[in-house]
Amino acid sequence: MKNVKEVYLSDLIKDLKHSHVKLNLTFLTKLLINSSNNDRPWRDKKFAKAISCPINKDKKCSTTIYGWITGYRTVPFSKLINIVEISDYSWKDIEDNLISIKAGIRNGEIYPNFPIKINKELGSIIGHILGDGSIDKRFHSLFYSNSNNELLKEFRNNMIDIFGIEPRIWVQEKTKFNEKTRWLKRMNNLNHIPKGHNVGLFYPKICTDILYAINGIFAAGHFKKITPEMLDFNLGFKKGLIKAFFDDEGSVRSDNHTLRFHQNDRDLLEQIRRLIIEVGIKPHKIRFYIKDCKQRCYFNINGFREYVLFSQIIGCSSTNKKKELNKLISKVRNSKNFKNKYAL
To answer: Which overall architecture, per CATH, does domain 116-225 show?
Structure first.
């Protein structure tokens, strides 16, 4: 999707062929009557054949179509494509009467808000997934994990705005670094999370299907990258992505004048670095060190100008990082070296 600002349901047709939709029943009835030209479309054998629906020989009708009209069944997207093609209705009409979408008959249901805007909120979702999130390689379920409630709420709120769905919230047991964690219990509200515990937010496959359709395959198992689609998106999206990634994978220390991005995947880190250059900030080149027999990659952003630009252009959602960044800027501004350098 090149240079797009908004994504409509019609833009996702080829990517949602295996999903199911729930439509407003009054509208769905009108749509089926219009496309079949029959007041009882479930009894129209010609129509049923046109959209590849079987006829029940005993009942002499299509129980599938009847199930759609009564709300007992959801409509497969592949069938909906055929129905719209032979009707007088448009995909905008479908979008206006859409209630929900799910990946299959029983898979998790979402209530998306179309059009989906290519903006900093969508960029934030992607940045968090590239940071402390993941997408299951086999089942495509989406997951975001953090111990910072501010970041968890940011991810949750952005997902609600786009997909209209609350996450399944699981709390992890406290463990030592590098120890395997176990799920402690499921919670209903992020405000009730025990302090200091890591939390996982889980979302159904259909969220991933839509994110893939818009952004390309940017995460699958351990594989993560900035896709060509993202490179064509606006600066708002890219700023949101960088900010979320920094909140997850970055650090700022005023004591040694360090603003740093960390990531073991050098290729992904270099892609993030190039996005930062694109928004007008000058980072250093990637360096690495060895810890626990593994290569750890990072790059720094240094200098008063870059600190201020980063604060103004990117910023942080983490209160602690924001305070430390402001402290760093104030410390450099008030230093003797800075005053001497810029003295009149």
So the answer is: Roll (3.10)
